[in-house]
Every structure is written in C-alpha cells, then in structure tokens.
Amino acid sequence: MEPLDSQVGFLLEADRLKTVLRQTTLTDRSRRENSAEHSWHLALMALVLAEHAPPGTDLGRVMAMVVLHDLVEIDAGDLFVYAAQAEQARQERAERAAADRLFALLPPAQASSFRALWDEFEERATVEAKFARALDRLEPMLINMVTEGGTWAAHGVTADQVLTRVALIEDGPVVGRLRPHHGRERDRPRPPRTAPGGVTATYHGSVSPGLTRTGTERT
Amino acid sequence: MEPLDSQVGFLLEADRLKTVLRQTTLTDRSRRENSAEHSWHLALMALVLAEHAPPGTDLGRVMAMVVLHDLVEIDAGDLFVYAAQAEQARQERAERAAADRLFALLPPAQASSFRALWDEFEERATVEAKFARALDRLEPMLINMVTEGGTWAAHGVTADQVLTRVALIEDGPVVGRLRPHHGRERDRPRPPRTAPGGVTATYHGSVSPGLTRTGTERT
Questions:
Q1: Which of A108, A197, B73, B146 has CB atoms 3.0–4.6 Å from A158's, for a disulfide?
Q2: Percent above pLDDT 90 for chain A
Q3: Residue B151: what pLDDT?
Q4: What is d(CA B18, CA B31) in angstroms, rounded to the nearest whole number?
C-alpha cells in the first residue's frame, strides 16, 4: 500500500473518535463531550497557556501529543478518571492493544514516531508529556467549574478523589494558581459553588463563570 | 484582569464551538459534524500529511491555524462552502466581527498574535496558510468519499461546484493525487461512487472506502 493510502485510511478510521463520549458535559450542559472535540480543546489550551509551561517546553510536541492521545479510545472507550483501580488496569491493557492496532495503520516510520509520542504521553516522563497531561486533567475541571461541579456531583466524587487527581496538574503549567479548593475559602469575592464532599469547584481568579454566555449570540 | 483570568475566560468561551454544526456528517452518518471536532481532525491531518507539505512548511504554525481557524463560528455560525456569493460576503463580515470580539478576550499581545494567524489563514498568502486551507477543504471531501457523496448528494451540489472548490486543494499537500474526478475514470480497480452532477467521490488510491469499518469493534 502506498504511504498516502495508509494515511488516508488512518485519517478515516480516526473519525470514529468523534463518537466516543466522555463523562464531562459541554459548558452549556446540552450533552456529553466527545473525545475528538476534547482533544481539540486541549490543543487550544496548549496554545493559549503556552507561556505557563516550563522554559524549554517544545509546544509542537505538546500539540502532537494532545491531538493523538485519545485515539486509542476508538477501541478502548473512555474510562471515567475516578473509576476503580481494577478498571483502570483493564483500561490500560485495552488502550495498549488499541495503540498497537491503530498506529500500525500508518506507514512504518510514522507508526513508530506516533506510537513513541503516545507512549511518552502515557509515561509522563518528559516536560512535554507532563504539560500535556496536566492540560488533559485541567480541561474537565474548567468545565466542572462552570457547571456547578457537573460530573463530580453526578457521580458523587469526593473532595479527596479530586485532590488526588489535581496533584498531576501541579506538575504542569499553572501550579497552585488554578485548582479546586478543599475546605474554607479565603479572599473569595463571590460565594463558591460546592460539589458533594466539600470540593469547591472554582479557582483563584476573577473570571465570571457566566462569561461563556456573554457576548453576541450566534446568528 | 490578570493574563491567566483572560485566558481561562477565552478557553471557556471557546467551548461553544462544540455546538456549531457543519453540513458534513460523521463517516458513520450518525449525526452532523461540529466545528470543534472538525478542527481536531484538521490538526491530525496536518500531523499525518506533513510530509506532503512543501519543503520549509512550519508545521507548528499550521497546527495553530487549524486549531484557531473556526473559532469565529461561535458568533458567525458555519456556512456551507457551496453557499451563494452574497451569503459568502455576509459571512465574511460576520466572521471578521467575531474575530474582533473573540481574540480580544485574550491578553493584548496574545490577542494580536492569534488574530494575525487567523488573518493569515483567511488570506491564504503563506505556504502554511495554503496547506492549512487545503486540509480544511480536503477533510469534508474525505468524509463524502466514504458516505457516498453525503453532503453533495443531500444538497444537489454539482460536479463543477466541487471542482471549483478542489482548486484550492491543489495549492496544498497532495496535488493531483487526492481529489474528486469529473467524467470518465481511468485505472480504477473498483466501480466509483457517483454523486449528482457526475462527480465521482473517490480518489486515485487503493484504500477501501469501507476501511473505517474494519478492525476491532469498539468494546
């Protein structure tokens, strides 16, 4: 098969990521988010938050990682980040098998380099992988922030569970500046929104949670 | 407002792109595609088809352009690429106004640089913009290829209309190798799929249009 044929086959197969649903809803709560549009949001976050990445971070590699990172869900589906340990282990095996199958659709050299990027993201060993994974953790938190703890409330996720997951963001771009808070809030200009377990789904900033709804309405 | 506050506000506003629907469906025809997941697909195409871009193309700039290019549809909506001239002109004005509003949500320096990238994409003057715009034109064509002329058939788009639009792809990565054909096919191993007006929604390769449906089914 010619390289271009393999590449087109891979790109058409990738279309299926648009049908994989995540637990998170959109900010307007109209429906659940899918993994393709989530991946786009991460790429946009990488661009917008680039200045908060550690010096020397290669933004192109971060962009490539976030665009590729969820493709394995075409076979393995999306697992809620707060799922039990045994389920997480099963998911990891399923994702590895999916990576074996999907990247092999590409010409060999490209298959290797994409697989290496995916492995790097999973292993979280490099500065680019840490930044990319922090963005992946941060995106649903931003959405939950404006949907009154949306997914956390719906699934009864506790404060401790969220805080464990937040630890990963602290490897990333906005250490200690943008994260959910546990317990009493200080210096807050407006009442925090609270999810079950006492998690306050807000952040140390002044952007109104209603901002997504201002501006010109779509024509 | 602190830079991070503006950036988070912009990122939450951007979430609305997930609700803007395009004419194209997914390859499984289950629903219409939205502009956020379309943008992700373009970023993936940029990565996968990079070797077909002209030498010296800066892939990072291409990725940034395709991630940003449709944000204006949050205010302006998506216009079918085959819409009438007057509608296209109205759309252009609406998109420019949207760019004025949306990028201004960011810190000033970032607003300028993102707006410049968006303008560059629109003007199609640089090699990166040409590549990005070719991908933007190619993506719905790939999808139509496996949905038996989907959008073209539904809207009665003619061969000449498609060919006019294809001209733009020829500025891009895969000149003359991957495009719909008009009239008689040569050297085709299997019967072409035909949309109204005699457009043959296929390409000069050997990837089966059914490829997206092979492989392991999702668990």
A1: A197
A2: 60
A3: 67
A4: 13
A104 close contact with B: CB closer than 8 A: no
DSSP state of B194: B
E-state strands within chain B: 21-25, 32-34, 181-182, 199-200
Quickly state the pLDDT bin for A167 (edges 50, 70, 90).
low
User: What whole-number distance in Å separates Cα of residue A59 and Cα of residue A145?
Assistant: 26
Cα-trace Rg, chain A = 18
A72 CB within 8 Å of a chain B CB: no
Q: How many CA atoms lie within 13 A of A56 on its CB side?
A: 3
Give A194's DSSP letter.
B
CB A212 within 8 A of CB B13: yes
Among B112, B101, B106, which Cα is nearest to B6's?
B106
What sign does the dihedral A77-A78-A80-A86 (CA atoms) show?
positive
| CA B200 – CA B184 distance, rounded (Å) | 9
How many angstroms separate the CA atoms of B129 and A83, rounded? 42
Q: What pTM, to 2 d.p., does this model score?
A: 0.77
Distance in Å, alpha carbon of B35 to nearest chain A alpha carbon: 9
* Residues of A with Cβ-Cβ distance to B189 under 8 angstroms: none
CB contact A187 to B (< 8 Å):
no
Q: Which residues pair with A182 in a beta bridge?
A: A199
Tens of pLDDT along A7-49? 999 999 999 999 999 999 999 999 999 999 999 999 999 999 9
Amino acid identity, position B216: T
Q: What kind and span of H or E run contains A25?
A: strand A21-25
Helices marked H in A147-212 — which ranges? Answer: 150-155, 159-169
Across the interface, do A67 and B44 touch by the CB < 8 Å criterion?
Answer: yes
Task: Tell me if B145 sits within 8 A of B162, measured CB to CB.
Answer: no
The mean pLDDT of chain A is: 79
Position B111, amino acid: A
Dist. CA B209–CA B188, nearest whole Å? 13
A83, B37, B126 from A150: Cα distances, Å: 16, 22, 43
Domain locations along chain A: 3-136
DSSP, residue by residue, B71-116: TTHHHH----TT--HHHHHHHHHHHHHHHHHHHTTS-HHHHHHHHH
- Establish how many alpha carbons lie within 13 A of residue A93's alpha carbon, considering only the half-sphere containing its beta carbon: 6
DSSP β-bridge partners for residue A200: A181, A194
Instruction: Give CATH superfamily name and number for B3-136.
Output: Hypothetical protein af1432 (1.10.3210.10)
Which two three-digit tokens encode residue B55?
């030498």
